[in-house]
Structures are given as structure tokens and as C-alpha cells.
Amino acid sequence: MLHLRALQSIMVLLGADCRVLEGLQRFSSIPTYLPVNYQVINAESAFFLKEANQEFMRNSSLLSRTEPFFIYQARSMPSVNASYGPLFVEQPVPLELIQNPGAFVASSMFTFNWKVQTFIIQDRIYLSNPRVQVLFYVAGRDWDDYSTIDKLPCVRMFAFHETQEVRGTCQLKGELGLCAAELEPLASWFSPPSVVPGRQ
Ligand SMILES: *[C@@H]1O[C@H](CO)[C@@H](O)[C@H](O)[C@H]1NC(C)=O
Ligand SMILES: *[C@@H]1O[C@H](CO)[C@@H](O)[C@H](O)[C@H]1NC(C)=O
Hints:
This protein is mainly beta. The protein is 6% helix and 36% strand. It is built from two helices and eleven strands; from the N terminus they run βαβββββαβββββ. The chain has helices spanning 18-25, 95-98, and strands at 8-13, 37-41, 45-48, 64-73, 79-84, 87-92, 115-120, 132-139, 154-161, 164-171, 178-183. Mean pLDDT is 75; it is low at 1-19 and 196-200. One 2-acetamido-2-deoxy-beta-D-glucopyranose binds at residues 37-39, 41, 81-83, 88.
């Protein structure tokens, strides 16, 4: 199942000259939409969506057209182009619409929608073995593209307790882009809170 988290919509406006506009005014009382042809380009896979209860004419007129779409995978900046008769526009999809929070900053070396995921190896730790291990791995990557393996970033993890902090770090690597970071909570963190409840 595809997880349609980043729904995007873009309104494509075509510049039309005044004579065309005057001609169009006559039709403005009839519900209409601009019958443009449109396409997402520079994306490995992208889908136009139809809502189940789509108000088809919503935000549409003879001068504009609104269509939601979802970009599943792209290696470079995707664009949308649209044409209507002799008119043609092409616009890059704004970056903030493409990247989920937590995704790598777009750069030529990463595909879009890469993100670092975490898995906490033990969810309870004890004073006898004060060790937190977290597996980090890259999700959403294009598995055909191994050229980025050497350029994977480091991850840092922080743990806080009251005013104290400990850190762990590791370097994502290999074809799976994973690593495990470890940190050791301080022994005092296992004692009852030193701050009177209500004062922190
Ligand atoms: C969008 O651009 C592609 C590549 O330049 C072209 O083949 C296609 O016909 C264009 N589509 C529209 C709807 O203009
Ligand atoms: C319709 O257009 C208005 C004004 O531009 C915008 O605020 C609204 O989000 C649009 N609705 C959809 C479904 O695109």
C-alpha cells in the first residue's frame, strides 16, 4: 500500500492574452475548467489523484485548473508542465511540498524522500547494563543507486535527564545505509528524581 502522506497540489495558471480573456468572459456563468494537458516531469514515479468525493469544479475556472498529485520517487527536482493550444508553462514543484519533515536536505546526491528512521534495540535499560542502542537506517531510497554509499552522513543521538546530557554517534554506511549508535546513561539517572515534582 502506498502511504500518501505528502499530498501536493499545485495550481497551474496559464498566461493568456487579453483577447482570449475577453472571449472567455462570455462563458464565465457556465461551470467550466481549463482543459489543459498536464504532466509531472523529472520524477521516477508520480501520480495524479482523484478524491472520492471530489468537487470536480472546486477552484477551477476557465483560467485555472487544480489537480492534487503525489510524488513517490524522484532523483532530481520534479516539475509540472501544462499546455493548452499554443500556450505552455513549466514550473518546478516547490521543495517544501516534496520533502517530508525528517527527510535529507535535497542535494544532487540523494533521492527525494530519503529519511533516517530509528529503531530502539532495547526499550528498557537497567543499571546493571546501562546502555542504549539505537539502530539508524535510511528509508525511502532508490535501491538501484549505490553511488551515494560513500557519502552517507553521520548521525548523533542525545539523551537528556534533568540538566544532564549524554551523546552517541555513528556513521551510516553500506548498501543498507545503517549503523547502530550507543550511549551510556549516567548511574545517577537510575535514582529517583532529585527535583521536587512541580518545580521542574
Ligand atoms: C511536458 O514536457 C515533456 C518533456 O519536455 C513533453 O514531452 C510533454 O509533451 C510535455 N507535456 C505537456 C502536457 O506539455
Ligand atoms: C482554493 O483556492 C483557495 C484560494 O487560493 C485556497 O486557499 C484553497 O486552499 C484552494 N482549495 C483547494 C482544494 O485547492
